[in-house]
Write a structure and sequence with these properties.
112 residues, alpha+beta, 6 helices
């Protein structure tokens, strides 16, 4: 199953307030690489890898590879992947502020 398949298989109403889910739900899948989002358990925690590589359109085409001994529902799986993808991410306002500060030569001079 790909991330796109997983997104389409859950109740979208449940995720109506999640901006990342809404963005992924409306993003057109692109040609992805032969990569996999890997899901396993380590020390009682879910570990999601390869969820930050490529564009959103590419990630939608990645196959989700769940460890065979892991018993997880589709909702739990999607929640974990969305949480991992959102980790350390910027909101639109934060991203805009970052680039404004980056381009502000006076502020850059003070930082140096």
């Amino acid at each position: 199953m790909t991330l796109r398949d997983l997104i389409n298989s859950v109740d979208s109403e449940q995720y109506s307030k999640n901006p990342l889910y809404r963005k992924l739900h409306t993003t057109k899948p692109e040609y992805g690489y032969i990569r996999r989002i890997q899901v396993k358990e380590q020390d009682g925690q879910l570990v999601i890898t390869n969820a930050h590589i490529g564009s959103l359109g590419d990630i939608l085409t990645y196959v989700i590879e769940v460890a065979p001994d892991l018993n997880i529902s589709k909702v739990q799986l999607l929640d974990a992947i969305l949480q991992e993808m959102a980790k350390g991410g910027f909101s639109e306002d934060e991203e805009s502020a970052f680039w404004n500060d980056f381009d502000n030569l006076q502020k850059a001079k003070i930082i140096r």
